[in-house]
Write a structure and sequence with these properties.
Blueprint (H helix, E strand, L loop, with lengths): L1 E5 L2 E5 L1 H14 L6 H28 L4 E6 L2 E6 L6 H30 L5 H18 L7 H9 L6 H20 L3 H20 L1
Parallel strand pairs: 2-3
Antiparallel strand pairs: 1-2, 3-4
Helix pairs in contact: 1-2, 2-3, 2-4, 3-4, 3-5, 5-6, 6-7
Length: 205
Amino acid sequence: MLKFNIFRIPVTVHPMFWVFMFLFVAIFAGENATALGITLKVLAFFLSILIHELGHALVARRYGAPVRIDLHGIGGQASYLLPNSTKKKTIIITAAGPLLQLGVAFIALFILAPLAQGTLAAGFIAPFVWISILLAVFNLLPVYPMDGGQILYEALPYNKKKIAFIVGVIVSALGIFVGLIYGQIFLAIFAGLGAWGNYQRLKQG
């Protein structure tokens, strides 16, 4: 288990994170993939997800919350207990993850990538950019508990919270359809889990 601090925030990377990341990348890498290429993509996923959770954690700490980051499975989580929580604070903290992820991706794309052309670093920067953009945009979809779904949930009036789960079911259903049409089984399965989770929350009221 890897443990370290970044900006005085404790980070724990669980062993299964690496297992799932290597399996995920290897499955979609293609027959011409090399061990080095797969490793660079796994490290790109690691840095991108860490930056995402760091966005949440830094803003939460700015509001006075003790924070920590855990990377596990195929994702991560910034844990915090926010004192004097408000809708505005929660929305800002939630949005900070994908926004920081996008910001760093565009810096890498327009500043670092041109400098790294023809070097080994280019094999890391290129996947880091598209991974970060895809993950950030994906996380902003209005499907609870992803960031977009959480933002929608917090933005709605108390008596309209169910709308967030209805939207989540609809968007997830579209994801299932797109996944099946284009043969993206992983997308269809993930969207199916999202649809089921939001349906269960809708039933619970």
